[in-house]
């Protein structure tokens, strides 16, 4: 194994650990926005690390093109989709009645 | 490299199992949309790991298709279930 293969293996393992962290966060966190915070880690950093591992395994321009395209489209579409989901979640949460029913008074 | 592949697939499987739990359990449709998006990203990670370990880069277009597919699914779910369907 060369140094590039070691780096590719490290990137693969780090991306998989991020995916596991996202799964744990999706189960443990309570609200939709918290789950979005946990879920964006493999969506952006994990996928980018795996794409970097693919390029490190075969560092040519012929593989760099599709990998760059996949990475850019993933980053752009994930941000837009997260914006849509967060707006919908926030609108529904703010339109719901509060739980305690009375505003807290701190004076 | 096979040991790395086994460990990576094991971690991805544990994460995907937790995400599937949230996908079936999720109290609102937006939670399911988030879980579906994360599951798509995990499928991309698994495809990339397979390509690296098996030295077979013929599944590069799958990554592009999965990226755009997750975007369409999440955005359409957020649009349809924005105000209702608790």
Describe the 3D structure.
The complex is a heterodimer of chains A (107) and B (86). With 107 residues, chain A is an all-alpha fold. Chain A is 81% helix and 0% strand. In chain A, helix 1 runs antiparallel to helix 2 and helix 2 (32-57) packs antiparallel against helix 3 (61-95). Chain A is elongated, with a radius of gyration of 20 Å. The N and C termini of chain A lie far apart (68 Å). The relative contact order of chain A is 0.12. Chain B is mostly helical and 86 residues long. Chain B is built from 3 helices and no strands. Chain B has a single domain, classed as Orthogonal Bundle (Helix Hairpins), CATH 1.10.287. Chain B is flat. The chains are: A mainly alpha (107), B mainly alpha (86). Chains A and B meet through helix 1, helix 2 and helix 3 of A and helix 1, helix 2 and helix 3 of B. Chain A: Belongs to the CPA3 antiporters (TC 2.A.63) subunit G family. Chain A: It holds the Pfam family PhaG_MnhG_YufB. Chain A: Keywords: Membrane, Transmembrane, Transmembrane helix. Chain A: This is Sodium:proton antiporter. Chain A: The chain crosses the membrane at residues 6-27, 39-57, 63-86.
């Amino acid at each position: 194994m060369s140094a590039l293969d070691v780096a590719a293996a490290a990137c693969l393992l780090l991306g998989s650990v991020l995916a596991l962290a996202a799964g744990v966060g999706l189960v443990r966190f309570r609200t939709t926005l918290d789950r979005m915070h946990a879920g964006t880690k493999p969506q952006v950093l994990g996928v980018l690390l795996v794409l970097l591992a693919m390029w490190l395994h075969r560092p040519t321009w012929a593989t760099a093109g599709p990998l760059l395209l996949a990475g850019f489209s993933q980053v752009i579409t994930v941000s837009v989709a997260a914006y849509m989901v967060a707006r919908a979640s926030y609108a529904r949460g703010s339109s719901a009645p509060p739980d305690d029913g009375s505003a807290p008074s701190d004076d | 490299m096979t040991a790395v592949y086994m460990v990576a697939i094991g971690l991805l499987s544990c994460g995907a199992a937790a995400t599937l739990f949230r996908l079936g359990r999720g109290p609102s449709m937006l939670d399911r949309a988030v879980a579906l998006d994360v599951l798509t990203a995990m499928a991309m990670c698994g495809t990339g790991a397979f390509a690296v370990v098996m030295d077979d880069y013929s599944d590069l277009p799958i990554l592009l298709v999965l990226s755009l597919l997750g975007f369409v699914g999440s955005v359409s779910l957020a649009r349809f279930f924005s105000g209702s369907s608790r």
